[in-house]
């Protein structure tokens, strides 16, 4: 009896070991791509992209294609093949140039989400002159896309079968494409059920055959096809071609995926189509589950919307969906980092989904018949030299500027008369938590300046400086301080108007206003520690240049200096030791006098700004000037760079 039990247990263990060692690619639910799915990763294995040439009897010439072999490709095993087709304006390089399929697939391999496969990207224009030149819509060139069916079946597939270690049966062969290539994939795949078992169309174009021609025998499709995928952007003008195919397939009870996501006719949608479709290939498929695939992501109304207004909405992949009612407008666009044409529906609503937008706050405009206006759904912000709409893309690591349950300071409005400008001026002044209850306490002061095209409302409104300071102070990471934000433009009406020969600050007497009027006014109205060791100045962009212009000529008044994406103008060939009347000439003296000198820049800022700030950083290092240099990862010349910079700078100043 004991022997029998042992034998049973032994064979059970053997079976478990065998099962656990069989490669299994079970079909798991596939979801919308997350941010970063198409970003190159250096820390994973990579496949190889190469160009191949094959003889085409169909065309009577040698033709080219790109081929992707997966990481670890070896001739000791066989691979399934995906034929991936381009659009009417592209060629064999369109996917490579616009969609980076090798990056998407490499990342999926690294996560164990796809079966190793070869991907062939051919030129779908079967003509001797198959380049996308001249009138790409000419009848003969369009006809070339139909002729490609013969080239694919009779020339390219046999070539791949003979030159690469691939399975040659239909169950290991897929075809998919974007736009014109999506139409080709449906036409060729459904028309050759003995050749393909997997068919995908991303935003299929008008070349798609009518549904009854595509699927004359629904039962054959049901029995022979393993997966039929149709996807499109909800704002794509060509969505009707996808929908009519879907409607017909639904009527005939043909299992398929119909996936509609926010988007237009672009690579954002097509890359996600490849991302999702490729994960389903060459794995067991349960046809009864395909109808459940639907876009399930929910957009969140932007925090910058007018309270109670639903649109614009931000989706998890940082795309933004806009919806505007303008029934009599001829054209409407969203100008958000680039222009996005909107599509009008029968109700007079214009809609569009953007590309993924970078983290942080961005100005945008609504262009109605080429006139830039503020989106009525958005709060208005002073930026770009005028009132503009704004949107704040949430940062997962951005809780440092979130409103939290901590003691809060106040932003106070201060009006004062300037004898220099002969006009009333306005400043916003942040007082830290406890300022009104601790009447005998005095505070250090940070003078914080905005950028070009903005004003004193920028830092508390777009920059969230009050919440940044509140959170830092509550965490005991910053010294309680007063922060003064004034308008960085000032002119002396008694002085002649100057041109820009002296640089962007020519004619701007703000440094004089700050030193001679604002500082004395603040020291009078507020409980300040009125000495240089308790006084700092910083600014972003133009405000950073103003900060250096002001402080370097008034080091008797400032001990802490910060330039965020802006600092000192260094002309080519300029010696740093000669700038600002030689303030950097004696490094030892400067380092003893200035307690913190801070520079920052976003890693994706324009080259001109990178050169300016990084050049100053290198010159300071060479001169022996102690300073902090921070590069904000993944941000450009924008508020997210400056919010992060303020967080760092505020945590460094006024420390004993």
From TrEMBL:
Which positions, given as ranges, span the membrane? none
One Gene Ontology term of the molecular function aspect: acyltransferase activity, transferring groups other than amino-acyl groups
Which species expresses this protein natively?
A: Mucilaginibacter gossypiicola
Where does the source fall among the domains of life?
Bacteria
PANTHER family registered for this protein in UniProt: DIACYLGLYCEROL ACYLTRANSFERASE_MYCOLYLTRANSFERASE AG85A, ENTEROCHELIN ESTERASE-RELATED
Q: What is this protein called?
A: Enterochelin esterase
What does the record list as coiled-coil region(s)?
Answer: none
